[in-house]
Automatic annotation (TrEMBL):
GO-annotated molecular function: NAD binding; NADP binding; oxidoreductase activity, acting on the CH-OH group of donors, NAD or NADP as acceptor
Domain 3-hydroxyisobutyrate dehydrogenase-like NAD-binding: 171-292
Xref: SUPFAM superfamilies: 6-phosphogluconate dehydrogenase C-terminal domain-like (SSF48179), NAD(P)-binding Rossmann-fold domains (SSF51735)
Active-site annotation: K177
PANTHER family: 3-HYDROXYISOBUTYRATE DEHYDROGENASE, MITOCHONDRIAL, 3-HYDROXYISOBUTYRATE DEHYDROGENASE-RELATED
Keyword annotations: NAD, Oxidoreductase
Top-level division of the source organism's lineage: Bacteria
One Pfam entry name: NAD_binding_11
GO BP annotations listed: organic acid catabolic process
Protein's name according to its UniProt entry: 2-hydroxy-3-oxopropionate reductase
UniProt domain 6-phosphogluconate dehydrogenase NADP-binding: residue ranges: 8-168
Length: 299
């Protein structure tokens, strides 16, 4: 392995986002060593995606990788996989770990220290842009860590994202990601409230969406979610309600740790956590449109 020459990439977490991200790496010619808790998903990935792909049958497979990406639900699972189950112990000294999950920034700082003390390099590089952006390779990527480690990962990240930001030291990427979703989550709620109010008043929500999109209420929610996933009733954005609630909670923990006032964010968190308490694992975050339909579904 030379410093900038990453050829074999480990990829753990082939979910809604991980699958298309890993597919793009395979298509770009990186050899992959993959793992997911769901064996069916791993087999399907090997069958459906072309490229040099190997399933990590045992932990020793990780010694082959030059870089290891995690795309997992949260910090607890990232730590469990890397530290408790011993994946990190199998990596060669100097291997670059890249946590692209939306994890907890404070946990990320201490994970980065632990990994560095073991002779490994680490950056956090969470993403925004949804499944659509993951398929197209147009995600925004927010990187925390040393700039040299970002440069080592540059070729890899270029396959996955369009805008790559170095936002600070380890954990800063995860902080920026959580704060982005904090804004996005509150915007979605206020938009849904406005759409229901419009409908009650006799304005077609499709018309109201066109008005918002041509006016100052325009947002990613109005442009890319309302008609596509809410008014169509498909609720299929590929980002679960529980994961959105997790992200708002991460941002609120960060804000509370800094003793900032955040009355709007607190209300938003309450609504997302109430939604998460009645949602199952597969409930899409855009289903908040139905949950807030004024029929008292969230109590
Ligand atoms: P997902 O639930 O679809 O996928 C998670 C994957 O991790 C699953 O395939 C699951 O089987 C696997 N997994 C869980 N525990 C594991 C373990 N112990 N070992 C190995 N594999 C394990 O989630 P997702 O939507 O792909 O999101 C992944 C991360 O990216 C989350 O942190 C999420 O917040 C973030 N994110 C999601 C989106 C989106 O639009 N879906 C966008 C940006 C960021």
């Amino acid at each position: 392995m030379t410093v900038n020459n990453i050829k074999t990439v480990g990829f753990i977490g082939l979910g809604q986002m991980g699958w298309p991200m890993a597919s793009r790496l395979a298509a770009a010619g990186f050899a992959l060593v993959i793992q997911d808790a769901d064996p069916v998903r791993m087999n399907d990935f090997c069958k459906q995606v072309n490229g040099l792909i190997k399933v990590a049958e045992s932990d020793s497979a990780w010694a082959e990788v030059d870089a290891l990406i995690t795309m997992l639900p949260n910090s607890k699972i990232v730590e469990k996989v890397l530290l408790d189950s011993g994946v990190a112990r199998q990596l060669r000294p100097g291997t670059l770990l890249i946590d692209m999950s939306s994890s907890e920034p404070i946990c990320t700082r201490s994970l980065a220290t632990t990994l560095r003390e073991s002779g490994l390099a680490f950056i956090d590089a969470p993403v925004s842009g949804g499944v659509k952006g993951a398929v197209a390779g147009t995600l925004a990527v927010m990187v925390g860590g040393e700039i040299e480690d970002l440069e080592r990962a540059r070729d890899l990240l270029d396959c996955i994202g369009k805008n790559i930001f170095h936002v600070g030291q380890a954990g800063a990427g995860h902080a920026a990601k959580a704060l982005n979703n904090y804004v996005s989550a509150a915007t979605l709620l206020i938009t849904v409230e406005a759409l229901h109010a419009a409908e009650e008043f006799g304005i077609d929500p499709l018309m109201m969406t066109d008005v918002l999109n041509a006016s100052s209420g325009r947002s990613n929610t109005t442009e890319n979610k309302v008609k596509q996933f809410m008014l169509s009733g498909t609720y299929g954005s590929g980002f679960s309600l529980k994961l959105m609630a997790k992200d708002v909670r991460i941002a609120m923990n960060l804000i509370e740790a800094q003793r900032q006032l955040a009355p709007l964010g607190r209300s938003s968190l309450t609504v997302w956590e109430q939604g998460a308490s009645v949602a199952d694992a597969g409930t899409d975050h855009t289903e908040m449109y139905a949950l807030l339909s004024g029929k008292d579904k969230i109590k």
